[in-house]
Structure formats: structure tokens, C-alpha cells
């Protein structure tokens, strides 16, 4: 595996107008503290946080994996696949490579090397104890719905809520831990709790 994300899929819509914002986030974010553990961030951490919707509270890969309850390597590979489908994210990834001295054939050790697999030894804030998840105003069990059908129905269900009301979602699709935070980041809704397969989402203020 190299540091270069997969080639883009032309069938997936791109948002080139986001490229300057992603590049600026990478340049501004390198060396900043992780919002969860205060470890200095690398540019690749910044891009992966951006993809997951953590634009205002950038986190390192280990903290992202810990918070989503996924192995670091699994989340990393899932995110690299997402990054490869968007020119803006891919441009940010390449800029991180340039700023940190990694060529396309070298694996960045900052976010993607062995150190990123230390999620088990990492010490971000522990998740809330069982039974202490945020309260919710509505509930939906989406079963095994895949990403496309899941977010389409989720959009409809969120629209029935009043601003700031919350939905408790059960989503067993294996892609949900990465797809739902990204969807929330794109739509402006707030992911309050994420312990796969249960998620609590607050509707944006509008």
C-alpha cells in the first residue's frame, strides 16, 4: 500500500470548490494538537478528520478509530478509499505528502504507519458508560441498510424532527462507522454518540 489514495471514480460527484479549503486546513492543521489527546497532528490526520466531518475539532487517526470503535488499520483503509473518490480530498492528501516529505511510493509513518495501530494503547477519553447515551426524541432501527439507502431514508427521518431534536439510529451496515460521521459533516447535523451499531444524531439548528 502506498500513500497515494485510489484513483477517483468518475461516477461519483466531486466538489472541486472545496479544494482550497481542504488545502488550507492541511497547512493550518499540521502540528496542531489533536482535539481528543493533544498529540501533534500530521496533514494526513487533518484530511481524515475532514472526511469524517471533524472540521472544527481535528483528531489523530488513533482517536478517530477509538471514538468510532474500529481498528485503526480498518478505518484508515476505509478512509483512503473515500479520499480517492474526491479530487478535493486527494489534493489535500498530496499536499500533506509534500509538506511532510513523503513521496507517492512511501507510506507516511505519521498517520498510517505502525504508530497509527496503537489505538489499543492510546489513551483518549474513554467512551461514556453503558446506558449513559444522550437522550433522544425519536428512534429508528435501519437494520442492514447499505449507505445509499440508509442516508436517503435518514435524510427523510431527520427532516421530520424539529431543530435540535435527536434521533437514536441503529445501523448495522459495516460502513456506517465511517459513512454516518461523514454524512453528518456534510449535512450539518451533529453526531452526539457513536457506538456501532447505535448512533445518536441531533438535527441542525436550521
How are the SSEs ordered, and which strands pair?
Blueprint lengths: L18 H11 L13 H9 L9 H8 L3 H12 L3 H14 L37 E6 L3 H13 L6 E6 L4 H12 L2 E6 L2 E5 L4
Parallel strand pairs: 1-2
Antiparallel strand pairs: 2-4, 3-4
Short description:
This protein has 206 residues and is an alpha+beta fold. It has seven helices and four strands. A hairpin with a 2-residue loop joins β3 and β4.
Question: How would you describe this structure to a colleague?
Answer:
The structure is a single chain. With 206 residues, the chain is an alpha+beta fold. It has two domains: 105 residues, no CATH class; 65 residues, 2-Layer Sandwich (Translation Initiation Factor IF3). It is 38% helix and 11% strand. The chain is built from seven helices and four strands, in the order αααααβαβαββ. α1 packs across α2.
Mean pLDDT reading: 76
Instruction: Enumerate how many helices there are, as a single number.
Output: 7
Contiguous uncertain segments of 5+ residues: 1-14, 113-131
Which value, in Å, is the CA radius of gyration? 17 Å
Q: What is the domain total for the residues?
A: 2
- Which oligomerization state do the chains in this entry correspond to? single chain
**% residues in beta strands:** 5-15%
- Major sheet characteristics: 4 strands, mixed
> In percent, how helical is the residue content?
25-40%
- N- to C-terminal separation? 42 Å
Q: How many strand segments?
A: 4
